[in-house]
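Thread: "does anyone have the structure for this chain?"

Original post by V.I.:
We have the sequence but no experimental structure in hand. Need at least a predicted one for the grant figures.
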Amino acid sequence: MNTTTQNNSRSATQMLVINALFIALTLVATWFINIRLPIMGNGGLIHLGNVPLFLAAMIYGRKTGAIAGAFGMGLFDLISGWTAWAPFTFVIVGCMGFVVGLITEKWRVKPIIANTVAVIAALIIKIVGYYFAEVILYHNWIVPLGSIPGNVLQVVVAGIIVIPFAGRLKKIAQKY
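Reply from O.Q.:
Generated one for you, tokens below.
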């Protein structure tokens, strides 16, 4: 096996492990670090699953962000009894991870600015995506409005946790 093939094989193996790790971290952070609030609609579950999702996207890019979000939170829905939500979560949170990664990969400004814009974009995707998912599931245009505060809180808290550290963590990850 030549050196290039070994490097590509090693890189593919490393990314497989990193993707699996972030799927697991996203699932665990969603499953174990959550609070149920008495808010109508689906806005009653506040969790920290967006923290590893954002870190995956900001450090390793759009592909890892999409994979971690789609599979990590999609699996949470499947194993926690929110099965009807799984297809919506797979698409919505996968898009969130992809867009966060895309913005932080392509936008050549200070990392804190790119990360902030990326979190704002994820917030918009989450609000719009879950609003329409709830319209489909509840057959109602009003009830989903109750989920918006919880969705905002989830993403804002994750952004506050991740934004200050993501740039530094990306530099550390690039060394290895």
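V.I.: this helps a lot. The chain has a mean pLDDT of 91.
O.Q.: and The beta strands are 34-36, 45-47.
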